[in-house]
Design brief:
329 residues, mainly alpha, ABC transporter involved in vitamin B12 uptake, BtuC, two-stranded antiparallel sheet, 14 helices
Amino acid sequence: MKAISKTPIVWLFLIAAIIVIPLVSGSYVIGVMCFVAVLGALGVGMGVLMEQAGIFSLAHPTWFGLGAYVSGILAVQGETPPWLGSIIGAVFVAILSVLIGAPLLRLRGYYLACATFGLLLVVEISLAQLGSLTGGHEGLMGIPPLSMFGFTFETDLHYYYLAWGLCLACLWFLHNLMGSRVGRAVKAFSDSEVAAGSMGINVPAFKLKVFVLTAVMASLAGSLYTFYLRFTQPGIFGFPLLVELMTMLIIGGGRTLYGPLLGSFVVLWLREFIHMYLGKLLPRMTAEVDAIFFGILIIVILIFMPGGLAGWVDRLLGFNRRVIGKAAD
């Protein structure tokens, strides 16, 4: 007899937890969980792109930042409603990712990583230099709250449900995508592009599809992020964000869809714990102190749990199923 799939139970548990958390916690927890959801939505797309499709792109913070800036600029100038600006930002990122991805995805491995990292630096510097449009190094200020169909998102609770709605939508979309013909093609060329091509799979086309889809998801997350903060700055979307995303992937594990979300939860709450409790012992808490703790954690994860926390959980659940199955026999 085939085992009953646990996927619906996992989804119900996650949705129930999202609903219950605001009822039993204060604004501080709600605020942190907003960032967990936004960075989780960004991370799950990057996890599929890098770990499952094998496309070593470092441009995710770029799409995140461009989505934030396009929607923020349109909202500040009053050209479009905020919700429409988010869609325009996603369309802009989609077009740009097609134009840039078509030539760049001919590269592989470290060559692609270097090219997309160069793109990250170029966009970050350009946003800082276009002061009349983007606010320059000081950042874009005066961004109005997100409004949609007559409803204005003003409180942390409003953005909490919106952020988690986006995060769950990204998870659901990628779950269905990886179970579709596109997902099977992705798994095929991730193992071997030559073998996939010999089976008639148009590898460049499928790579570009995954690249563009995850870029659009990053743009939508960036738009939500900037409307929540009502402020944006080039430094937010640069190298530090890339390091944070990579840390999330390593700790959570990118081979599963929920791994980057788990990594987002662990990284953000561990950072809050460090600042809240260790700040009393170490009065001069700086970014270097964060780097020490996360560096040690990454080393431990890579040595003892190379698949990340999600891989460890999967192995634990698999072990329990085998033990229970033998006991039942």
